[in-house]
Amino acid sequence: MRPSGRQPDEIREVRLTRNFTKHAEGSVLVEFGDTRVICTASVEERVPGFLRGQGRGWVTAEYGMLPRATDTRGQREAARGKQGGRTVEIQRLIGRSLRAGMDMEALGERTVTIDCDVIQADGGTRTASITGGFVALADAMACEVAAGRLPASPIRHGIASVSVGIYQGTPVVDLDYAEDSNAETDMNVVMNDAGDFIEVQGTAEGHPFRRDEMDAMLDLAQGGIARLVAAQREALSQ
Amino acid sequence: MRPSGRQPDEIREVRLTRNFTKHAEGSVLVEFGDTRVICTASVEERVPGFLRGQGRGWVTAEYGMLPRATDTRGQREAARGKQGGRTVEIQRLIGRSLRAGMDMEALGERTVTIDCDVIQADGGTRTASITGGFVALADAMACEVAAGRLPASPIRHGIASVSVGIYQGTPVVDLDYAEDSNAETDMNVVMNDAGDFIEVQGTAEGHPFRRDEMDAMLDLAQGGIARLVAAQREALSQ
Amino acid sequence: MRPSGRQPDEIREVRLTRNFTKHAEGSVLVEFGDTRVICTASVEERVPGFLRGQGRGWVTAEYGMLPRATDTRGQREAARGKQGGRTVEIQRLIGRSLRAGMDMEALGERTVTIDCDVIQADGGTRTASITGGFVALADAMACEVAAGRLPASPIRHGIASVSVGIYQGTPVVDLDYAEDSNAETDMNVVMNDAGDFIEVQGTAEGHPFRRDEMDAMLDLAQGGIARLVAAQREALSQ
Amino acid sequence: MRPSGRQPDEIREVRLTRNFTKHAEGSVLVEFGDTRVICTASVEERVPGFLRGQGRGWVTAEYGMLPRATDTRGQREAARGKQGGRTVEIQRLIGRSLRAGMDMEALGERTVTIDCDVIQADGGTRTASITGGFVALADAMACEVAAGRLPASPIRHGIASVSVGIYQGTPVVDLDYAEDSNAETDMNVVMNDAGDFIEVQGTAEGHPFRRDEMDAMLDLAQGGIARLVAAQREALSQ
Amino acid sequence: MRPSGRQPDEIREVRLTRNFTKHAEGSVLVEFGDTRVICTASVEERVPGFLRGQGRGWVTAEYGMLPRATDTRGQREAARGKQGGRTVEIQRLIGRSLRAGMDMEALGERTVTIDCDVIQADGGTRTASITGGFVALADAMACEVAAGRLPASPIRHGIASVSVGIYQGTPVVDLDYAEDSNAETDMNVVMNDAGDFIEVQGTAEGHPFRRDEMDAMLDLAQGGIARLVAAQREALSQ
Amino acid sequence: MRPSGRQPDEIREVRLTRNFTKHAEGSVLVEFGDTRVICTASVEERVPGFLRGQGRGWVTAEYGMLPRATDTRGQREAARGKQGGRTVEIQRLIGRSLRAGMDMEALGERTVTIDCDVIQADGGTRTASITGGFVALADAMACEVAAGRLPASPIRHGIASVSVGIYQGTPVVDLDYAEDSNAETDMNVVMNDAGDFIEVQGTAEGHPFRRDEMDAMLDLAQGGIARLVAAQREALSQ
């Protein structure tokens, strides 16, 4: 039995609130149950040095957690003077994932920065960030098209992400904090809306996992991501 | 005429949403018009080194702005590796202001950290942070009393803050961004609920101000703060 | 009775020693009683990025304290790897104050950096820095005129600063360390030589202050600054 | 055809030179073809703060690359003042992987630090680091047993790692730099000597991968790791 | 001919002003011609971690230059966030030199920090710092004896330092900036008052130096230091 | 009697292994007995800002120690976020020493970076770095000539370095760790292959040294360096 009473293949309620703040080209509040992340997409007419003059764009991400997004207050990274290893890992993952859905030539020499700021954490902040970040990215691209700065959206594929794991011997999808902190194995999966894999990051915290467990987790991830892709499409169609 | 159509002595609509997030002892979303700040109060059973063993508590504040809280994206301070001078100034002001309403002996050897994170900026983020931060602090103290960790709230006075300035020759209260960026003089005033001054920080951006202008601004501040104190009381009574 | 035996409206002896060191365009040792600060003004033919190509100049300030300027040795900020919050606040105040007396178009694309280094501290280091920094700035501008790099000094107003506060219930001017460390309320006031306010920064350390106390403090500040402006004029006339 | 002429399921020549330097409890030069990494294991009689007093030990890893380990010189991270995101990711992976083979209660309150320093890079530095790091760890544990500080080795499972990917449409194992820099998909797999998975980190650089491609890559990884485990056993038996 | 008209073996006028600032246990303004350095000695009742519990003391030094101590303004190290390589080298040299004259057992578990802050630079700031720093150290030790915290001064030997070099083919002593910036070879020599060497740091900027040139420079250094030791004794006897 | 059984004027066995790694223009493993340092020379077609447009080149050095190169593990400087004072001193010494043998006009607008990374330390790491770094520099210059980027090598003199010191009252050459950690006086000497001095850095750790001791140490250094120069020539002739 999962602490939340959910079925093993049941994801939490997903809410995607577009235009959550007014300044950004794309701004989305994403909620996976009690996990809440503000995702904004900012477009700038410049690219990092290593891409200059190549006619191609870039998508990058930054991730942060408000100090009291969690049960006990964490140190503010700006005050500490550096981003922790976990933050660095997560923002690199978000950036790679969202780049995989884009046509960088079609984007042209622009950088889109996806800022994912967790205001309340209850497990799955990185998968929520990718899923909500994609909607912010889509809105920002639509904004560029509407403003006549791009002829068409450079997005080629939707991107969504969910966690899977083994909780008390059973494979489950979309772990909340109560499950995540006790999971024996934890895997984050990123897929596109064609059903192909973008990223698979599995870690055996408690005990190493067998090949058949991996197969079961991948099946659950495919099911969960299909529902997230549907939620993204519904949100973007409104 | 003010850009927003407000009267010179009219503050923006104020909203104070308590229990905005679930983990913190106090958590408030404060809105001064389009300016929105998440204020959380976190209580920890320890004090900084310089206070250890004296039986007294401490209240401190940290301030941050999400990178895209503003019209153009600002660099994330955690990524840059240090907090800017403006951030440091603001968080020191918030901390000093809120300490002025507390009885530190009654707090005992505890630290309350007020985190003020701006999710949308439209002028007055520091005054909104102080005003909302006080409500979060009050909730956190009530939480400690309810949990039996404190016999009574160590709060002695309510604290609120508003900006005043001279916009196109006229003294006005609670400047929004359109006014603030064009104001000739800008002053942040912090007062307690007894009508006394805690902090006065006036800066002549455009032209130095005369003594009579200062008097007019202080009058406006007193009126604005009276309304904010009323809003705090109403929010806390619900 | 004040610890120094001064009258409430009596400032300390002020000494302004010009040409204190030989390399800078302006170099002044300012002394407010036992508080001693070396102020140098350095002119460079460039402006910060945000001003480039606009034909306007910039004045900025940096502040430091020798580690043993105070009674107990403080950590060297260069060794610690960052400037503290107090330093950042003070140097921003000095810069804003001195910019208020300048015509930036007349300065042209030049940056003047005012370095204020406290070699002995006894209260009022920021007000002494502003008062002495102005004399260094005036000397540097005269040096540019003498060298033919500027047709006339871009200084429009003299700038001086003094502290006021409430010590044992009595408003007093120009607090020394013995007073400052026990003051209930402390306010730094910056004015120009036309008698208008540039900055007012009041903080209630001990008890919040009433409007009539504020009025008394502003009166004392006006008197004290008038005497500092006279001292600046005398020093510059020699 | 692979650039090196290897078969798709053929790993590079592996060399594990024990006692490569004289000071460390375990010191191994690991070579995967032209990739060469010095792995040392250092034992200290203390644990990080979060483990103190629990009777359990810790294994952590640090990773670095000599500036000219690569074709063009990279900036020295010590000179730059921080470790890059890639470094942080890799050293966290190495640490998690090696912890998975250890019984932390049996280790007692000791920390083993695995330093992996790449002196020549040709693809697969992280998989070589894990594979060589395990041998250094095993030697360090044997050293503790020999010195009477531990009754028996706390190692429960061997750990090894290999990369797999899709190069020009074909799944291949143990990619060298020529392949890695052109691979469409890249996956690092860590397994224990019982054939279970510890970590799976797959990234679609070029094109997202299908489930059948993932299966093929996992098959290759299992074969490659079996050969690495055999090489570790042979090295440790000498 | 030297730019200053001095003889090859002639040092600049030396002034040692004791009690230059009021807070430190020892405070000296040292002047070697136009080079002016404030040296303070601060005594604290604690030692660095590596010495704790051994009954021995420590002497350390920190060095800084005011940004406009030189002809063109240098960046403030506190603002830049780190001390430069030259600063680190110099402060390590000062600390080692002054430790060589002390009996650390007699000092007991105390740390003396010598702060050397250059307010005007004209060559030889490190040699002036050592020479002036010794007088500040002697005053601080006398202060501890006078206060009854030490039974007798732990100083065993006076320490002084001078530079020598080869300027336009001629060995000269105590180079000023005009000479130093054109010297072919530059050597800083530290000796004690018994005429023995503490440090010799020679660098061939322009051309490597022969053994006979080295001998000539060492002779000049011995002569110059003898005069500095005399100046220290005279200053301390007043 | 020296711990190693060597004669006072006997240096350790020296090995210079060229082409130790494959990517750098010059790559040498230098061994002074058990001290082992990897020295690489990297050539880049750019110069630091202060040299731009002058037609001259630059040689600089960076130094590091693997954390477990020593008997107890040292903190990794990249993890700590800054290079220590000792590292800064050493890399500045290596850079200055190697520049002394070069004709910078002949090098043209190129920077050669010598990276010296100690993989095993047993005393004399800086002298080994200079001696091995020179061979790497020579190989890199030969590589540039062979590639047609330079008409001839810009090296004018060979550079080598050895330590001398006073161990148990006796002057000795090339101290190993057992001697170095107990030496009363320690001096690093750098000379060119014409027998002239480039750097002399002597420090009296235990007791100040007399002039005659200095003479004896310089004699030993000259003898030791002559043997190192011969070893360099032999290595480069193969």
Automatic annotation (TrEMBL), chains A, B, C, D, E, F:
A Gene Ontology annotation in the biological process aspect, one of them, is:
tRNA processing
> Which HAMAP family does the record cross-reference, listed alphabetically?
RNase_PH
Function, as annotated, reads: Phosphorolytic 3'-5' exoribonuclease that plays an important role in tRNA 3'-end maturation. Removes nucleotide residues following the 3'-CCA terminus of tRNAs; can also add nucleotides to the ends of RNA molecules by using nucleoside diphosphates as substrates, but this may not be physiologically important. Probably plays a role in initiation of 16S rRNA degradation (leading to ribosome degradation) during starvation.
Q: Which reaction does it catalyse?
A: tRNA(n+1) + phosphate = tRNA(n) + a ribonucleoside 5'-diphosphate
Q: Can you tell me which family this protein belongs to? A: Belongs to the RNase PH family.
Q: What is its EC number?
A: 2.7.7.56
The kind of enzyme this is, by top-level EC class, is transferase
Q: Where does phosphate bind?
A: 86, 124-126
Q: What is this protein called?
A: Ribonuclease PH
What InterPro entries does this protein's entry cite? ExoRNase_PH_dom1, ExoRNase_PH_dom2, ExoRNase_PH_dom2_sf, PNPase/RNase_PH_dom_sf, Ribosomal_Su5_D2-typ_SF, RNase_PH, RNase_PH_bac-type, RNase_PH_CS
Q: Which organism is it from?
A: Thiohalospira halophila DSM 15071
Subunit comment = Homohexameric ring arranged as a trimer of dimers.
Record flagged with keyword RNA-binding = yes
Entry's Gene Ontology molecular function annotations: 3'-5'-RNA exonuclease activity; tRNA binding; tRNA nucleotidyltransferase activity
State the UniProt keywords alphabetically: Nucleotidyltransferase, RNA-binding, rRNA processing, Transferase, tRNA processing, tRNA-binding
Question: Which region is the signal sequence?
Answer: none
State a single Pfam family of this protein: RNase_PH_C
Domain (Exoribonuclease phosphorolytic): residue spans on this chain: 10-140, 159-222
Judging by the UniProt lineage, the source's domain of life is: Bacteria
